[in-house]
Structure formats: C-alpha cells, structure tokens
Amino acid sequence: MQTIYEKIHAFQKAGIDLIVVTAVSKSGEGPVEVGKKMIVTETNEAFGTVGGGALEFHAREKCKELLKSRQHLYEKYILSDGKVHPSAKTLPMKCGGVVTLFYEFIGVANYVYIFGAGHVGQAVVNVLKTLNFHITVIDEREAVINQFKGGDRIVHQPFVEFLESEGIKENSFVIVCTPSHKYDYHVINKVIEKNMKPKYIGMLCSADKLKDYLDTTYENFGKDVDLSNFYSPIGLDLGGGSPEEIAISIVSELLALHHDKKNPKHMREVHHGDHHYWNN
Question: Which of 52, 102, 203, 249 is deepest in the core (most CB within 10 A)?
C-alpha cells in the first residue's frame, strides 16, 4: 500500500495539482488527531483523513476553491453547531472541540500550452523552464518537434486535434505561434468554439494579421464574442525582434497577468511615485 507521501510524489510526477490538508492543532473533543493528513487532487480524488464528518466535508470543499486559486491556507474550526468562536468557523458537529487545519497547495505555478515548436516557441520555453510552470508544446511537424528541448510535455499531434482530444486546463496560459496564420486561427477559434477558459491566449502576429483575424472571428462568432483574455500582438512593448527578445516580452506579459498586475510599471514608478527623480 502506498503511503500518503508516495501518492503525493506520484501525483506530482503525473503533473496533477493537489492540496495536502494537515491537522496542526486541536483543543477539546473531536475525531481529529494532530498530524493526520488528507490529500485532495484536482481530479477530486481524496486519500487519508482529517477526522471525517462535517469537518472533512468542509475541508474537501475548501480544497476545490484552493486548487483554483493555487493558494495555501490556515483555517480554524469549532466543532459545535450553534457555538461561536471569534476566530473560527462553526461546523455542524457535536464534539465541541476546536481544530486548525493547514491547507498546502502542491503543484506548479500554472500550466502553459505552446502551439508551435519553432524558434519563438523554443525561445519562450528557454525562459519559462527556469520558472515553476508546467509547459506543454504541441506541433504537428515531426522534424521540428523531435529537436525541441525543455518542455515538460512534447506532443507530436495536429494542433486542433490536441484541443479536441485533450483540451486545456481552466485559467491556464496559451501561446499561439504556429507556422501558419491558418493554424493560428484554427487553434484560437477552437478554444472559443469549445468555450475553453484560459486565463490568457496570446497570438504572435503583425497588425495586418490581427485585423484579418478579428474580421474573420467577428464574422464567425459575432461582434459580442468574448476576447477579454486574448492578447495580440502578443507580449509587452519592450522592443527587439529576435526570437529571444520576443520570448522575454511574452513571458513578461504572462508573469504580469499571473501576478494580477493590471498595468505593469517600471519599478522606479512603483517605489518613487511621489518623487520622480528622473524628471529633475
């Protein structure tokens, strides 16, 4: 039988996010033992226990929230319906004790899908692989995909077929840099058609290509199509046109969104907002 730690390791190797719930303190009565653990995965599998009953039901529901937000949490509970504790949630139990659980998110910062294993795709992975992102690279060109390096998953498959068969994780990041405008459009339109919900989908393109894409998209899906998560031309305006410079621009935009930076600023503007020394 696998220990809970072996299960955690197996899920990590498979690229499956999970929450480890640990009972870290207890006072009074209750079915909880300090140190007991439960893991809940993004696929809603659960192993171990933190005591059962309403406490464990609440813990599993809380794990679903934290798997979406990818966060840790300490939370205290009073195991007595009708009683109130100033810093604890009341659960419908009769025990009367007070328990604290620690929810630990274990997983990557997020999932990135790169459609296109050419020069820009390779340059993006060279930057991203230094960070805690899980990277999947998809390309239907066998010679190109066979020489690609650095991704967590390298998939030799037609672009749209991958979306049809596997899809993408909700709130993930999608970078579209295929060898053809036609393929780019097919990828993005399939995401729209299947109502997938990435946090970000960026397309490498020129201003003319973007206009053509938007015209086609409005024709296919109507003017009300939601493009709020669509970023094109892709990247922040950092300058430079080499694959490496474009990659840094793309990853900078991705990180700004990952950290919920609405309008990325120079650090001097953040720390010296009232004293613009550069304007003296």
Answer: 203
Structure tokens at 243: 């694959």
Beta-carbon contacts of residue 222 (< 8 Å; ≥ 6 apart): none
Q: What Cα–Cα distance (Å) separates residue 173 from each residue in 38, 135, 156, 237, 278?
A: 29, 10, 19, 19, 35
Structure tokens at 106: 């274990």
In the Cβ-directed half-sphere of 168, how many Cα atoms lie within 13 Å?
A: 33
> How many Cβ atoms are within 10 Å of 37's Cβ, its own excluded?
17
> What pTM was computed for the model?
0.85
pLDDT in tens, 84-94: 666 777 788 77
Q: Which two tokens stand for residue 144?
A: 């190109």
Torsion of CA 79, 82, 86, 89, to 10 degrees: 50
Q: How far apart are CA 91 and CA 72, in angstroms?
A: 21
Backbone angles phi, psi at 142, to 5 degrees: -60, -45
DSSP string, 18-76: EEEEEEEEEESS-S--TT-EEEEETT--EEE-SS-HHHHHHHHHHHHHHHHHT--EEEE
With contact defined as beta carbons under 8 Å apart, do 246 and 120 qualify?
A: yes
Q: What is the pLDDT of residues 193-251, one digit of tens each?
A: 999 999 999 999 988 889 999 999 999 999 999 999 999 999 999 999 999 999 999 99
pLDDT digits (tens, 9 = 90+) for 62-107: 999 999 889 999 999 888 776 666 677 778 877 778 889 999 999 9
